[in-house]
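DEPOSITED CHAIN:
***
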Amino acid sequence: MKIIEIVEQIFPINSAIKNAYIDFSKMDCSVVAIKTDQYINGDQIIGYGFHSNGRYAVSELLKKRFIPRIKDLDSKGLLNDEGNNFSPEKIWKAMMHNEKPGGHGERSTAVGTLDMAIWDLVAKIEQKPLYEVLANKYGNKQFTNKIFVYAAGGYYYPGKDVAMLQEEMKSYVDQGFTTVKMKIGGASLKEDLIRIESVLKIVGHGNNLCVDANGRFDLTTALEYAKALEPYQLKWYEEAGDPLDYELNAELCKNYSHAVATGENLFSMQDARNLIRHGGMRKEKDWLQFDCSLSYGLVEFLQTLKMMKQYDWSPSRIIPHGGHQLSCNIAAGLGLGGNEIYPNLFQPFGGFPDQSIVENSFVTFPSFVGLGLESKSKLKELLSKI
């Protein structure tokens, strides 16, 4: 059992949208294909991986450091002890050889992208969906093909008025989503409150709406927004300040009675642990949003889950950022609280297999193996070009 080739290509996911901090006019994405000497029913087994939006392609890191380290491995370094499948843990350890701790940068994205492809291989060789593999080996052997999802959107866009925002949110409701998310912080507080109230007219109760500031605010502004948001009883108020400003987050939690959410820009178990230690997060109320494709992959994410257990946090308090099928599989196999989805954005990387059914913000997956990437026809077409 060998890896015979690892290929990386860059694909654009650019758009005119923007959040409170960045625009997506030049956003792109690294996609990798790990090709093996294994075949099932005449089809070569290939593992695919990519990273979430919000970070740029990581070609140089992949080509100069991490892909060569995988290529240098012999069968002992590639395979599990039984020799019948690849070992994500061994390969991850090899990728991180000679890497200093901390200072993650884009390194965490490069490793996460390759790690995603390795897990796709593992599940394909077992001829099972990844969520079943995860449940059996790392979970409580209970898995589901139905998870909670919410529709993320509500970005700022040139010329986009309140009526257009309402039209966008209605399209998500029409697709089966009852919970949605919108951006704040890219306009004045007064304007954002008008936008929020317009969306609530579409989705009803505040518990059906999340708002996301993308780390824009200082403490004064974060608390000003918190006071204004309080009456709406929103599902959560997301990433008010810089993700590493744990003191700001703790102060927000003291002064805002409803749920906050953060964590999508914390890229290691240690960063996640610091949030839980110092960020004031309330385990019965608040939400964690760690995105494994940006944070060293599923191998590291499993360590984060172990850490959370030590602090008496349930995995059900995690609803990952990213909107991709890796996080969907983790949610279905390891009991996370659900997943973010971009129904109309960052395609074809976001969303579900084509035959998935969304009702009342729960998605039911059809049968697939691996991550199920090839079960999404437009994504399959893109992957076939690598």
Summary: The two ends are 21 Å apart (CA to CA). Residues 137-383 form a domain with the TIM Barrel fold (CATH 3.20.20.120). The chain has a mean pLDDT of 96. The first helix runs from residue 59 to 71.
